């Protein structure tokens, strides 16, 4: 199986690349086959914007690659990530996206949905942590009360 990975370095300035990796049958590891810098990408061709098709082509400065994604949905997700990465990291010559469904280029994209899901999850986790903190605070107060009560009982018992 072969996959494309869109990655960005954490160096300054950031460098984005597209890497083709291959996973051989029976193996859990991946082998890097080819890598292009994002600046080399000239065109992303979705082949047919009117149907959900897994086929697509990528045209680079010195290379042309034909691909078939596992599903049309995976192709759409890859295109959204690729489009977002190009918009964010390429300041000059951005690749042309042709024959792509309009949902890839903006609007209610999977990236926005993912961001909303992450934000929602973070808010829920934060609320759960706050509630847990309050319960722990009450438990600490109760423990302190019990400790004081036990000390008073021990002092009284010792006097008797």
Automatic annotation (TrEMBL):
InterPro entries: Sec3-PIP2_bind (IPR028258), V_SNARE_CC (IPR042855). Residues 133-147 have a biased composition (Basic and acidic residues). Gene3D superfamilies: 1.20.5.110, 2.30.29.90. The keyword Coiled coil applies. Residues 133-160 are annotated as: Disordered. Keywords: Coiled coil. Residues 107-160 form the V-SNARE coiled-coil homology domain. GO terms for cellular component: exocyst; plasma membrane. GO terms for molecular function: phosphatidylinositol-4,5-bisphosphate binding. GO terms for biological process: exocytosis; Golgi to plasma membrane transport. This is STXB6 protein. It comes from Pitta sordida. The gene is Stxbp6.
């Amino acid at each position: 199986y072969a996959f494309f990975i869109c990655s960005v370095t954490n160096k300054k300035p950031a460098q984005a690349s597209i890497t083709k990796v291959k996973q051989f049958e029976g193996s859990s590891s991946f082998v890097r086959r080819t890598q292009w810098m994002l600046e080399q990408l000239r065109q992303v061709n979705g082949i047919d914007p009117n149907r959900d098709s897994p086929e697509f082509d990528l045209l680079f400065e010195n290379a042309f690659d034909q691909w078939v994604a596992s599903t049309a949905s995976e192709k759409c997700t890859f295109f959204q990530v690729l489009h977002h990465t190009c918009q964010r990291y390429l300041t000059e010559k951005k690749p042309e996206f042709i024959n792509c469904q309009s949902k890839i280029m903006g609007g209610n994209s999977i990236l926005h949905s993912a961001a909303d899901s992450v934000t929602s999850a973070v808010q829920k986790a934060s609320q759960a942590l706050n509630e847990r903190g309050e319960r722990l605070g009450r438990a600490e107060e109760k423990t302190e009360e019990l400790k004081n009560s036990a000390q008073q009982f021990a002092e009284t018992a010792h006097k008797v």
